[in-house]
What we know:
Blueprint: E1 19-24, H1 29-39, E2 47-54, E3 57-64, H2 67-70, H3 73-78, E4 83-89, E5 104-106, E6 113-121, H4 124-133, H5 143-153, H6 161-169, E7 174-182, E8 186-190, E9 199-203, E10 206-210, H7 214-219, E11 222-226, E12 231-236, E13 239-244, E14 252-254, H8 255-261, E15 267-268, E16 271-272, H9 273-287, E17 294-297, H10 303-313, E18 321-323, H11 336-346, E19 347-349, H12 351-354, E20 358-363, H13 370-381, E21 386-391, H14 419-426, E22 430-433, H15 436-443, E23 453-455, H16 457-460
Parallel strand pairs: 14-23, 17-20, 20-21, 21-22
Antiparallel strand pairs: 1-4, 1-10, 2-3, 2-4, 5-6, 6-7, 7-8, 8-12, 9-10, 9-11, 12-13, 15-16, 18-19
Helix pairs in contact: 4-5, 5-6, 9-10, 9-15
Amino acid sequence: MDRGHPTLAKPEGLKEECSVFGIWGHKDAAQISYYGLHALQHRGQEGAGIVTKEDKKLHVVKGEGLVNDVFSDDAIKKLKGNAAIAHVLYATEKGRGIENVQPLVFRSTTGSLSIAFNGNIVNAVELREHLERQGSIFQTASDTEVLAHLVKRATSGTLNQKDRVKKALSLLKGAFSFVMLTEDSLMIAQDPNTIRPLSLGKMGDAWVVASETCAFDIIGAESIRSVEPGELIIINESGMKSEQFAKPADRAMCSMEYAYFARPDSNIDGINIHSARKRCGKQLAREVQIEADVVTGVPDSSISAAIGFSEVTGIPYELGLIKNRYVGRTFIQPTQEMREKGVKMKLSPVQQVVEGKRVVMVDDSIVRGTTSKRIVKMLKDAGAKEVHVMIATPPLVSPCYYGVDISTDSELIATNRSIEEIRELIGADSLAFLSIEGMLEAIGRSPEMKNCGQCLACFTGEYPTEIFADTVMPHEKEIVR
């Protein structure tokens, strides 16, 4: 995963990397994929693509921008067939450009293959170097292309395509959810730790797969189950078959999916996101003692936690902050002054709600602290007497290597700082974070279990997989365990 060029402004907060969708056995596969991508748009805004299968032909339409920008009526009509895979892209600087927009299509004399991917392969650099020494030439910066080359080169003996895919997948380390469309099958793969979400569903006789179950709701599909650790699902004219390409490891679903990334109406491992966030807010309220006049959440992901916090404390919940949904990303603005204006364009305090009040501001996380500092200042400039910042997750102290565009450890405000030092830096009157044990209990996991089912690496620095040296920036290597 690219971490951005050092001369560019860094993201203010957490950014997800991509989402996948797939369908097999429906005459309107392209149209359904289009609606599925709409439901998943929050996971990536840089590009979108759909590949369909018509007999043994693969058709592709993709482009940079939002789903609506990429797919016109005419574009959808070109995508014929009863099977499809689709993708929305969030990319850092290195991963931008039309060549990195997925699904990628690979054509050869032995058959065509299309792949879409969500996550991050931590041994991708090592695998690329190995493949290049064998003569492979890469056209993109995407980890997706690594899998395609591995599949093509897994030709020892008389392996069929399914076994070549299994052999290639077994070489990957990290977090990955793949959907693959061949001339005769839809293949679905989940990493052995299930770090990124992936769910299987049915729409009549058609099979569907998506990064989040909210995509099933919009197309009228029934959610069946989560894709299991190390599982490869093959769907074709013979039906659906499940096999293991790797031994299942301890489940380690990304905790920030529950806190921030996933839509509130999605379910992950049978746990509703809105309900989990609300319980996190309730648990946070039990862990702190605060006197205030009003509770508000930072839109949108913190609203559920703010409501839960309000219910337990009895402090009224109000819309103290309003989000402008028609403003693009602000963190790439070239000057500090322009970035600050961008934050004000995206978020505005409601003066009549906060003026003269002791305000509890509930948020899902603090990354660099710059956005929190600006929001606290905005609330005080609007007349808030006090601003108490309550964070519905534990402090983020370590980088993520599993598909989240999180800052390096040197830029995380909570790394090597006390809560009091963070409070002073953001200008809040008080600051509190939810405990790890409280978060796990609120989500619905058991903190006492060795395998709690969650990845806690960004809170603890303990990673569920091996982290390869080439994955990290040079100045980060000393923190990898």
